[in-house]
Design goal:
The protein has 345 residues and is an alpha+beta fold. It is built from 13 helices and 9 strands.
């Protein structure tokens, strides 16, 4: 029996045997960029989501730890109804199937959605200090390791543009600047993927927040830029700045880490955004070339644009921005076309 079928049979046996649920249907709900899969189980006792996180590739313990940190803050994470840590199975509250992204792409007014998402984020950052203290730091090694995915997978593998000599020195210097800028920000609880695909539209306590298992303690601007400079949906700069300023005012009013001024806070936001989007360029390409998942290649152009536009705003990043505009931007469309034409990674 193929392994996915074996895992599905294991789930069915767990639900009906150990948990004594009367299962009416067990359907695929989603998968993500890891080995995790999700199933929607309709039972006589209600509808649940089953997380399938097969060991040894996945470990549910980080998810359980972060869930237990966020839920007491009033953040609407899926309640954990049952667990089998050894076999990598969790029975979770069903938050539905409507992502923020679906509503935004359908043309819904973004302001109410973002108001709710920003309110939840503020709760995490203002009230989650003790929780953040239990998390590992988003430190120098993590920040650098993430950014180094970009020259390896995006430049060398996807664009056939391995950096050498002066280009490598430029990249190294830029990455060091971004690391120092990130470490200079106040530290808070960082979800690390707080964006429109991980926020669910729920009838109460909106939004539902998922995919938080990689949380760390790190820069205050990180989750904010994940949300407002989303790799899957884009907003005009003026609107983003309004949202950022309003969020800073919320933090400041509560005595939170709002910085000395609005320009300083916006700089934090923009610079950690470059770090994040540089990382994401590498991750999206790795998902194709290593994992055979092409669905993220179409988001490379938007992600790269975030980097070049931010570089144009700050003198320290201008040389890196010019390199991207000169060597990288002109190559991207052809590289995407070649990959999406159906060639195997």
């Amino acid at each position: 029996m193929p392994e996915p079928d074996a895992r599905r049979a294991l789930i069915a046996d767990w639900l009906t045997g150990a948990l004594r649920l009367e299962v009416r249907s067990l359907e695929s709900a989603s998968s993500d960029a890891s080995f995790r899969r999700y199933f929607r189980a309709a039972t006589q006792q209600g509808t649940f989501i089953v997380m399938d996180a097969p060991p040894p590739e996945e470990d549910v313990r980080p998810y359980l730890k972060v869930s237990a940190l966020l839920e007491p803050l009033g953040v609407h994470v899926p309640h954990v109804h049952a667990r089998d840590e050894a076999r990598g199975l969790l029975l979770l509250e069903d938050l539905g199937s409507v992502q923020y992204l679906a509503r935004l792409e359908a043309g819904e007014d973004p302001d109410p959605l973002y108001f709710a998402a920003l309110a939840a984020l503020a709760r995490i950052q203002l009230e989650g200090g003790a929780a953040a203290a239990t998390l590992a730091p988003y430190g120098r090694s993590e920040l650098l390791r993430e950014m180094r995915l970009m020259p390896e997978w995006f430049l060398a593998r996807h664009l056939h543009l391995p950096p050498k000599g002066a280009e490598q020195s430029l990249i190294d210097g830029t990455f060091e600047f971004l690391v120092q800028a990130a470490l200079a920000q106040p530290e808070v609880f960082v979800h690390r993927d707080y964006h429109s695909r991980n926020l669910m539209v729920t009838p109460h306590a909106n939004p539902g927040v998922i995919d938080f298992q990689d949380a760390l303690r790190g820069p205050v601007g990180y989750d904010l830029v994940s949300l407002l400079k989303d790799c899957y949906v884009r907003w005009p700069r003026a609107r983003v700045v309004r949202w950022v300023n309003a969020y800073r005012e919320r933090l400041a009013a509560a005595g939170g880490p709002a910085g000395a001024s609005a320009p300083e806070f916006l700089r934090w936001f923009d610079l950690i955004g470059v770090q994040r989007h540089v990382k994401v360029l590498g991750i999206f390409c790795r998902l194709w070339y290593r994992d055979g998942k092409p669905g993220y290649l179409g988001d490379l152009s938007r992600t790269l644009a975030y980097v070049t536009e931010a570089c144009a705003l700050y003198d320290e990043l201008a040389p890196f921005g010019r390199f991207l505009e000169r060597e990288v931007v002109p190559r991207l469309a052809a590289a995407n076309s070649a990959a999406l034409a159906g060639a195997s990674p």
